[in-house]
From TrEMBL:
It holds the Pfam family Asparaginase_II. It is an enzyme of class 3 (hydrolase). The keyword Transcription regulation does not apply. GO terms for molecular function: asparaginase activity. Its EC number is 3.5.1.1. It comes from the Bacteria. This is Asparaginase.
Length: 325
């Protein structure tokens, strides 16, 4: 029989080893992926193919928030950070989502995202103990969805059908993704929360974060950057890796996404985007800390936030390490 060779998907062909898992001196697994960096002048470099098409998942939320502000959304501070969040569903997060909806004259029944329990283990346990069923309000994307609904109310667009890719809101989001990333979305699909998800590249995502991080105060991009920098707990939650990274580096704008995605930028415009091929978030703090240290932004807090231990019988016996070691 003649062997049939199937070409590798571009995202696989463009991947390289980024991190390895070491247990008492033995490497037991390796995470492959792509790393794109953007310097202060907008030049792209990285490891693997930074121009490969991929799905940015929730790391795209700050870009979506810029689109909403361009359409007239009136949020800033904690609630704007919540609009950019994959929040943990802790009580203040849930109350904040309710405040966004109330400000738009809407209730939780208008939310179209997927019902779920909170990401935070304690909040989820409390919900189960109270007999609370999974609900859109508790799901980690409810801040973004509440903001989308508030944007529709502010712009005079229909609230019904706000998740349809042909809705004016989603058309504006698509245009904003293309504008900030410099990449026309190669695919439109459905994210886990039900919102349209627009494909990009790691280079494009890094470029978008660079533009957000360096935008003038008061612009939609500048407002998003200010909210995320000032209120990193609202972007993630207690103990979350993205929140710890943002707290560790002054001025950092950072956002994670499902399937092993993380992007961040410093105030001077240096930025990066990571996609891990196996979809695991495990190496993301390690890789982010390594890039930021290379940028000269290392701090003791960053070293702690970027450490991922490997446990043996409940104690550290190794760690996840960047392949640059």
């Amino acid at each position: 029989m003649t062997a049939v060779t199937t070409p590798l998907p571009p995202v696989l062909a463009g991947a390289v080893p980024l991190a390895h898992v070491e247990r008492e001196g033995t490497v037991e697994s390796v995470h492959l992926g792509t790393l794109a960096t953007c310097d202060a002048g907008g030049r792209i470099a990285g490891r693997g193919d930074p121009h490969v098409g991929f799905l940015p998942r929730s790391a795209l939320k700050p870009v979506q928030a810029v689109a909403m502000l361009r359409a007239g959304l009136d949020l800033d501070g904690e609630l704007l950070a919540l609009a950019c969040a994959s929040h943990s569903g802790e009580p203040d997060h849930v109350a904040g989502v309710g405040a966004i909806l109330t400000g738009a004259g809407l209730g939780a029944d208008a939310l179209g995202n997927t019902p779920d329990l909170p990401l935070d283990a304690d909040a989820a346990a409390a919900a189960r103990a109270a007999g609370t069923a999974p609900a859109p309000l508790l799901q980690n994307c409810s801040g973004k969805h509440a903001a989308m609904l508030a944007t529709c109310a502010a712009a005079g667009w229909p609230v019904a059908g706000y998740l349809d890719p042909s809705h004016p809101l989603q058309q504006l989001v698509r245009e904003t993704v293309a504008d900030l990333t410099g990449v026309v979305p190669h695919v439109t699909t459905v994210d886990g929360c039900g919102a349209p998800l627009f494909g990009s590249t790691p280079a494009g995502l890094a470029r978008a974060f660079s533009r957000i991080a360096t935008a003038p105060a008061g612009t939609p991009e500048g407002r998003v950057a200010a909210a995320m920098r000032t209120h990193p707990w609202w972007v993630g939650g207690t103990g979350r890796a993205v929140t710890r990274l943002a707290l560790a580096v002054p001025g950092l704008v950072a956002k994670d996404g499902a399937e092993g995605v993380l992007a961040a930028a410093l105030p001077d415009g240096r930025a990066f985007a990571i996609t891990v091929l196996d979809g695991s978030p495990r190496p993301l703090p390690v890789l982010a800390a390594d890039v930021l240290e290379g940028f000269g932004a290392g701090t003791p807090e960053l070293a702690a936030a970027g450490r991922v231990d490997v446990l043996g019988h409940g104690r550290p016996v190794g760690s996840v390490r960047p392949m640059t070691d």
